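Today's session is about reading a structure prediction critically. Students often jump straight to the picture, but the first step is always the sequence itself: look for stretches that repeat, for charged clusters, for runs of hydrophobic residues. Only then move on to the predicted structure, which in these notes is written as discrete structure tokens rather than atom positions. Here is the chain we will use throughout the hour.
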Amino acid sequence: MYRKEEQPLPPPEKFELPFEGKLSPNNRWVIMAELIPWDDFEEEYAKLFSAEKGAPAKLFRMALGTLIIKEKLGTSDR
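Below is the predicted structure for this chain, in token form.
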């Protein structure tokens, strides 16, 4: 398994916004993120990549999270 080593994402309550803001626990994205077993999926996702082919993969949470946001907001991937 091969994936670019990145720092793990902080839990929502520790995520700091610019100008010292914090994410609200009532934020729709925070609530949705808590429903997904990210670590379980990350383990399976990482098995799909090889050190011999292509660029290292991004974190599963980033990959799926952006797709969920795109679909929920009805935006294009262009």
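Discussion point for the tutorial: Residues 12-73 form one domain.
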